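Supplementary notes for students who missed Thursday's class. We covered one full example, reproduced here. Read the sequence, then the structure, then the short commentary at the end.
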Amino acid sequence: MDLWQSLFLLVAGVVAGALNAMVGSGSLVTFPTLLALGYPPVAANVTNKIGIVPGAISGALAYRRELRAHTGLLVKLMPASLVGGFLGALILFALPASTFEAVVPGLILFACALVLVQPAVRRLTGWSSSALDRGRSRLAALIALAFVAGIYGGYFGAAQGVVLIAVLTLLFDGSMQTSNAVKNALAATANTAAAVVFIVAGGISWLPVVILAVGSSVGGQIGGRLGKRLPPLVYRIVIVCVGLAAVAKLLAD
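Structure (token representation):
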């Protein structure tokens, strides 16, 4: 990899890290970039998943102020996300990623619709802003979500952030920004678990991993700052646009 290719990948990492911190789907930038640089699909997939982990952690840290009030919730959700990400990575070695390709576009479109209608749904259901821990059924649903989303993220991961934030905004009594903060923490946990599996399995191109790690870490901080400034309506529009872009990319492949 020459200097210009390294700089190109670094910029892609910054953009992906910012996207992941704000919404998700940063891999829509980095994975095609790795393919364009000549890496085989499997190697590009593994390299990408490991390289964006520092960016996911950086994005979660950018929202640490929003997360402090929900430490108890994270303690309950993150283990489920960790186990899910680990299992998802193991499944990736047994099944091709194409297994999910038929259903993922519909899943993402459904998530986009949830983001748009969430305020109306919450008004119709009469959910208050009371603490989530008082609603055991919703807490159980969130734990199940964290586990399933962790599997999805470790195995396939397209628009994982869009799917997570869609359900979080529906089930979680908090603002869009707080839901995004929790989403970042769960995605970082699942991606870290998956990365450990890939590292143990070996066969990793470490130079692009390091470049992506640096770029995505910087991007995570940038995306965290930009995301906090977006009004709720604009934020919803951004999420839906990113989700639709993910669907278009999947259908075009």
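Commentary. The first helix runs from residue 3 to 22. The radius of gyration is 17 Å. If anything here is unclear, bring it to office hours.
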